[in-house]
Design a protein that fits this description.
Layout (H helix, E strand, L loop, with lengths): L6 E6 L5 H6 L4 E5 L14 E2 L14 H14 L8 E5 L1 H16 L16 H21 L4 E7 L17
Parallel strand pairs: 1-5, 2-3, 2-4, 4-5
């Protein structure tokens, strides 16, 4: 078994300083899942990882872009600017929003019809999302051979009601 670097999860309510804390890690490089990791009150300025070489955009707009960012890091065997710590900021948005959008847009039922967020069969898309998350976890395992990893996620109560989900209440 090869050496692994430390891996952390920083989880808490919004605006408590989770990203600021993570940005203080040595050689911090950020996949900015929410568009707000550009700097902090503490002065820490992590390297923001670009979605690809053709854009200056640092926030992935799709699951495919997020996975492509990880794939490039994995393939390069290094973080940008000789970084030592990969920070994935906004993990909830990346998985809950982009991952589910990807499954609903690309996967189909056995009969070839698309899944729906209002269907009683919604468990199947969630199972498929777990398969996509496993791919991300494998990539992170490979990246962890040359970099520390910090995953930043927000706790919180969903205050919006999703009209597409039957019986959805404020969760």
């Amino acid at each position: 078994m090869s050496q692994r670097y430390p891996t952390w999860l920083i989880y808490g309510d919004k605006k408590l300083g989770k990203t600021t804390l993570a940005s203080g890690a040595p050689g911090a490089c950020v996949i900015d899942g929410e568009g707000g990791a550009g700097g902090s009150e503490s002065g820490a300025k992590p390297t923001l990882i670009k979605v690809n070489d053709k854009t200056d955009r640092t926030m992935p707009k799709s699951w495919v872009e997020f996975v492509a960012m990880l794939t490039k890091i994995e393939k390069d065997g290094a973080l940008p600017n000789k970084g030592r710590t990969l920070i994935i900021d906004g993990a909830g948005r990346l998985i809950n929003e982009l991952g589910i959008e990807h499954v609903l847009a690309t996967d189909t039922k056995r009969d070839g019809t698309p899944f729906s967020a209002t269907s009683d069969e919604f468990c199947e898309p969630v199972k498929r999302l777990l398969g996509y998350v496993r791919i991300v976890l494998r990539k992170l395992e490979n990246i962890n051979e040359f970099a520390s990893i910090i995953i930043v996620a927000h706790e919180g109560v969903v205050t919006e009601k999703n009209p597409e989900l039957p019986g959805d209440k404020n969760q």
